[in-house]
Amino acid sequence: MLDDVLAKLRAALERDDLAAAITVIDSLQPADQADLVEELSDADQIAILSQLTPPDSADLLEEMEDEDAAALAELLPPVDLAGILDEMEADEAADVLGDLPPERAAEALREMEEPGDVITLLQYPDDTAGGLMTPAVVTLRRDWRAREAVRELRRLGPDADSAYYLYVTDKGGVLQGVVGLRDLVVALPETTIEALMDPNVVSVPVLADQEICARTLSRYGFLVLPVVDEGNRLVGVITADDLIEVAEDEATEDMYRMVGIRGEERVFGPLFPSVIKRLPWLAVNMATLFVAITVVNAFEAVIAGTVALATFLPLVSGEGGNAGSQTSTVIVRGMAMGEVTVRN
């Protein structure tokens, strides 16, 4: 289906009919838009983006692969890029800027209207809770009434997009409890937040690895995970959609590890980086093969004396390879699930 749409999009661009191209783009969801735009040339990508509003451009950039989004962002003038970044979620904007050259990122930050949250997130590594979180959190006070909390939600309006759970903090921002949105809505107006909240809050440290965050969310079945600093102060939340991407990335990383590839590699990626990523383990494999050849040579006289033994060499080699693949698969999965640790 998308192949046909891509053909229509390219045909419109070849005719220099941007209006028709935008009609095609507007008929799709942002995720599908991103898939199509990633297939276009740099010039066509810029042409498409120039016809979209900043909010629509932000949705598109958020759905693109990190490398493709950064490559497209680098082509934009700082003022145009800043306008798009202002419309993006802070964590998504930080991801884009983090993949840009420092001087280009600094230029875009200077042009942004409200770069504060983005600058905060850029302080944390991408693969930590701090790098994944959004600082936009709905917080309540334990002495509030339910009606006051609902009023606060109405005041925040669209900014309360992650308000599946409402977190209770003190004046210093220390996390004290959590209230479910449903519990708040059905509560009597004069019910106190303290009576509604659960004081046993599951949270993750701001520097926790993204894999730990994904496991925690999966273990407890949450939609949102609060992030705290060393003083247990609430600094942000991670939403489930962000951690779905993390789970995909971690699964990909584990698959690459299983076959000895370092880092991320794409099917149509450049040749030289691909060679660099594969070469170390290929060299190790070559060394072990020479060891195997040496062992076979050591028993050359035995094999020559009993020729029938030579017919078993492919069998032994094949079964050894199969058993090795099975074992490595089980071990890598165990490592990914936390079942195999350094102690083992």
Low-confidence stretches: none
The CATH class label of the largest domain is Mainly Alpha
Number of helices: 19
| Fourth CATH level, the homologous superfamily of the largest domain | MgtE N-terminal domain-like
* SSE pattern: HHHHHHHHHHHEHEEHHEHEEHHHH
Q: Would you mind describing this structure in some detail?
A:
The protein is mostly helical and 344 residues long. The chain has 3 domains: 2-123, MgtE N-terminal fold (Alpha Horseshoe), CATH 1.25.60.10; 139-247, CBS-domain; 262-336, no CATH class. The chain has 19 helices and 6 strands. It has helices at residues 2-14, 18-26, 30-37, 42-51, 54-63, 66-75, 78-87, 90-98, 102-111, 116-121, 129-132, 146-156, 181-186, 193-196, 210-220, 240-258, 271-298, 300-305, 313-336; strands at 139-140, 165-169, 175-180, 204-205, 224-228, 234-239. The strands form 2 sheets. A 3-stranded mixed beta sheet has the order 1-2-3. A 3-stranded mixed beta sheet has the order 4-5-6. The longest helix has 28 residues, at 271-298. It is extended. The model has no long low-confidence stretch (mean pLDDT 83).
Short note summarizing the structure:
The chain is 60% helix and 8% strand.
Q: Which tags fit this structure?
A:
single chain; 344 residues; mainly alpha; MgtE N-terminal fold; CBS-domain; 3 domains; three-stranded mixed β-sheet; 19 helices; extended
